[in-house]
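This is your field. Pick holes in the following sequence-structure pair:
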Amino acid sequence: MSAYDENKTLDMIEKATKSVVNISTVKLMQNLFYQAVPVGGMGSGTLIDSSGLVLTNNHVVGGAEKINVTLWNNQVLEGKIVGLCAVHDIAVVRVRANGLQAAELGDSDKLRVGQRVYAVGNPFGLAGGPSVTSGVISALNRTIESERGLIENLVQTDASINPGNSGGPLLDIEGKVVAISTAIIPFAQGIGFAIPINSAKTCSLDMMAAGGSRRPWLGVVGLTINPDIARYYGLPVDHGVMVTKVAEGSPAYQAGMGDGDIILEVDDVEIRRIEDLVNEIHKRKVGDPVRVFAIRNRRQHFFETRLSETP
């Protein structure tokens, strides 16, 4: 890379870091004697509006009694939760300030594997500004079951993301935010995950409209079937989604779906991968009826139910 190109990149990062904040929280936890004990937490956030809206992770601020937001210039402001979206691990926090430098948001639908990205975070609010790591996008549309539940449609990157960087932006080479980093995955070694910015924008709009995000929920965890898996297990089809877990009380549970069912269609739309199933469910609204075509014990089954709100 030439000196001119590097300086251009460094200028972009320097500008973008002014929209990255440190978030410190206090949560009340119970000790062994059931006494409330204050516990401190730390994370990062991304300013998305000059009037003080901050995008961060649900697991960073959810349940917090007190939130402090430290800007790039070390100014400390009190934060208030606008809304939480657990399904995408996204939260919006508001601080009372004007003239803040908001980040420029990109389009995560245009992301490509191998694309260069920069993870920015301000985990400790230290002098010298936020920290920066670089890497590439190593995979798209990842669905991960974390200790807090299923998180869908994640961006996978080899840029280092530590717990303190959770909520910070993942930038493209133009300095646009293409994803919000999350360190919620406990077993990630050498890889990081981030929420696509388009999903985060949808969540944040829902929150500001209704104080929360009403996302439709079928209530299954599934595995994408490919020809290798089909041959190994002797399955009757080489595509679709095999149900590995059905949440008790969920729409799928109420419809009679169970482990081992192979989902092939939702409302006559073919389902070949877990991403297809997620996309079809998210196209609908809470309360919408759905008809699922599946195979159980090599026999065709239809399941009808209504989507509920993601718990």
Q: What stands out?
A: The chain has a mean pLDDT of 83. The radius of gyration is 21 Å.
